[in-house]
Amino acid sequence: MSEGEHGPQPPGGARAKARLHIVTGKGGTGKTTVAAALARALASDGGRVLLVEVEGRQGVATLLGSPPLPYEEREMLSVPGGGTVCVLAADAEAALLEYLEMFYGMRRAGQALNRLGAVDFATTIAPGLRDVLLTGKATEAVRRRRGRRRRPSDAPSDAPFHYDAVVMDAPPTGRIARFLNVNSEVAGLARVGPIRNHADRVMEVIRSEQTRVHFVSLLEEMPAQETRDGIAEIHGLGLRLGMVLVNMVRPPLLDEADLAAAADGGPDLDALAAGLKEARFEAPGELAAALAGEVRAHALRVRLERRVRSDLEELGRPLLELPLLEGGVDRAALEVLARRLAEQGVRL
C-alpha cells in the first residue's frame, strides 16, 4: 500500500476532510461502542453528528440505556460545548417506503405494499437492494443541507450541511466489502432506472474523499487477521481507509524486567512462597504456585499483544487505542472513550 491517497497520514489530517465515517470490525470487538464513541468525539467541538445503525440490532439503544429506537433521527447525546449526537436505527423496509414517498409521492402505494409483505419480500430476496437502501440513508444524510424540504436538491447548494459528520455502525468485516460495493450488488437487479441511479449516488459518496472506512480490532490474533483481510478488501475496491481502532486495551501490571522474567520462566517460587508464609497465608506453597501461573499467563499475554500491535502498525494506518473499562459501557463510560479519541487527534 503506497503513501498518499490510501497510505499513512497524520491522525488529524487523515480525518480532516471526512464526513462519512464507516466503522467495521469482527464481532465481539465492541464495534458499536467504538462507533458511538467516535460520534461523540466528533461532536466534542460543537459539531452536529448523526450515528446510523444498519444491522437492526438496536445496539446503540442498549448502549445508551434507551428503549428500542424508531425509524427516525433522534437526538440522543448532548455534548459539552454545544455538540449533539443524533441516532438513526436504519431499517431497509422503512427506508424503501421513505424512498418511494420522497421521490415518487407513493406513500399510500408503499404502505399497501408493506401490508401485503411485498417490501419485506423484495428486500429479502434481493440483499443488494437492502444494502443500497441502508447505505443510501447514510449517504443522503451526508449530502443533506439545512433548509431542505422534501428532496436533497430542495436546499440551496451553498447552504451548510445539516450534519457535520455521519458515523455508520456498519456490518462486520466479513460482510463489509459486499455491503459497501452496492453498485456491484445492484448490477444484477437493475442496469438502468431509479434503483441504479440511486446506487450510483450512493457510490459517489462512498468513493469520495469525504468517506473513510475504519476498522475496530483487539490485540488478539483473530480480530487482527480479520482487520488485515478487511483492509485488503476495502483497498482493493478503491475505497479510502481510515484508522485502526484497537479496543479494550489493558495496561501491563508489571515493569519490563518483571514481565521478561515472568514470561521466560515465571517468578521464583521459593521466594514467593517464603513471602506468603511470612505474611501468614495458609498453604503458601500451593498459593505461590497458583500466583506464579497467573503472573506468567499475564506476561505471555502482554508479549502476544505487543506482537499483534506491531503487526497492526505495519498496516500503515493511524493506530488509536481505547482502554478496557471494567463494569461495562454506559453513557459515562462512552464519555471516557470519546475523550480518549479526542486526545489522540479525532475531531471534525
Rg for CA atoms: 24 Å
Tell me the name of the CATH homologous superfamily of the largest domain: P-loop containing nucleotide triphosphate hydrolases
| Biggest β-sheet description | 8 strands, mixed
User: Using DSSP, what is the number of strands?
Assistant: 8
Low-confidence stretches: 1-16
Query: What fraction strand?
Result: 5-15%
CATH topology of the largest domain: Rossmann fold
What's the average pLDDT?
Answer: 84
As laid out across the biggest beta sheet, the strand order is 3-4-2-5-1-6-7-8
> Helical amount among residues, as a percent range?
40-55%
| CATH class designation of the largest domain | Alpha Beta
Anisotropy-based shape: elongated
Class based on secondary structure composition and strand pairing? alpha/beta
Helix-strand sequence: EHEHEEHHHHEHHHEHEHHHEH
Distance between the termini: 26 Å
CATH architecture of the largest domain: 3-Layer(aba) Sandwich
InterPro entries: ATPase_ArsA/GET3, CobQ/CobB/MinD/ParA_Nub-bd_dom, P-loop_NTPase
GO molecular function: ATP binding; ATP hydrolysis activity
Protein name: ATPase
Pfam family, one: CbiA
